[in-house]
Amino acid sequence: MTKLSVNINKIATLRNARGGNIPNVVQVALDIESFGAQGITVHPRPDERHITYQDVLDLSRVLTTEFNIEGNPITKFVNLVLQVKPAQVTLVPDKEDAITSNAGWDTVQNKTYLKEVISVFKENNIRTSIFVDPEPEMIKAAVETGADRIELYTEAYAVSYANGEKEGVMPYAECAKIAHELGLEINAGHDLSLDNIEYFKEKVPHVDEVSIGHALISESLYIGLEKTIQEYLKILK
Ligand SMILES: CC(=O)[C@@H](O)[C@H](O)COP(=O)(O)O
Ligand SMILES: NCC(=O)COP(=O)(O)O
């Protein structure tokens, strides 16, 4: 079985658009847990444009499933993670001004740095995962950083699948096999969706967890929109 961790960044984006507390990020996370998701993912960015550092603290007090905090390990982020002690931290090499995550780590170039950061989290019993492109060289060097897991960055797969190029899944299948043989556990995420996840699950072995946000929240609007409009019409008739 592959666990589903729901990324709730987009819930915070919607909340922040009005400055109030609708939707209530903490309540939505609790509801997502009660609907069966096995984890909650957040990716607080330095400008706090969606999930705020305060959200992370508030969520950590009430969540009962696996809490996964993603981000670039700048000092502020490392301190937050050490304060919260989530089940998992996922290290992502984001630029401050990135619209979204757009690359995995170069684990060869950053091996020493990653090793140092990861050791701090490991001393605090926090599972570590590093975000990587599906390249065998990056997976092999990831082992040497001491990370428990890799998160395969799936945007390229999502794009190729949408273009009808199903062979785009092959590097992921190959890297998952290599990672598994080397003793790494495997996560995957970015632009996974109801359209593309079934084929990914069929072809890529040993995936422990997927984290999904953007598509899942967009799809839930469509799946819930008809019922919501009917509720309004019932009241307004
Ligand atoms: C690492 C990853 O792929 C996701 O966390 C993604 O970066 C979501 O972040 P945004 O919601 O800011 O796009
Ligand atoms: N780690 C990936 C994640 O949390 C969600 O990415 P996306 O589904 O919002 O693209």
Automatic annotation (TrEMBL):
Q: Where are the transmembrane segments?
A: none
Top enzyme class: transferase
Q: Give the enzyme's EC designation.
A: 2.6.99.2
Q: What is its main location?
A: cytoplasm
Record localization: Cytoplasm
In this chain, 1-deoxy-D-xylulose 5-phosphate is annotated as bound at: 45, 50, 100
By its UniProt entry, which Pfam families does this protein fall under?
A: PdxJ
Q: Where is the active site?
A: 43, 70, 190
Q: Where is this site: Transition state stabilizer?
A: 151
Keywords attached to this entry: Cytoplasm, Pyridoxine biosynthesis, Transferase
Q: Which residues form a coiled coil?
A: none
Q: Which reaction does it catalyse?
A: 3-amino-2-oxopropyl phosphate + 1-deoxy-D-xylulose 5-phosphate = pyridoxine 5'-phosphate + phosphate + 2 H2O + H(+)
Q: State the pathway, as annotated in the record.
A: Cofactor biosynthesis; pyridoxine 5'-phosphate biosynthesis; pyridoxine 5'-phosphate from D-erythrose 4-phosphate: step 5/5
Its Gene Ontology molecular function terms? pyridoxine 5'-phosphate synthase activity
Q: Where does 3-amino-2-oxopropyl phosphate bind?
A: 7, 18, 191, 213-214
What's the stated role of this polypeptide?
Catalyzes the complicated ring closure reaction between the two acyclic compounds 1-deoxy-D-xylulose-5-phosphate (DXP) and 3-amino-2-oxopropyl phosphate (1-amino-acetone-3-phosphate or AAP) to form pyridoxine 5'-phosphate (PNP) and inorganic phosphate.
Q: How does it assemble?
A: Homooctamer; tetramer of dimers.
What family is it from?
A: Belongs to the PNP synthase family.
| Designated name of the protein | Pyridoxine 5'-phosphate synthase
State the species of origin: Autumnicola edwardsiae
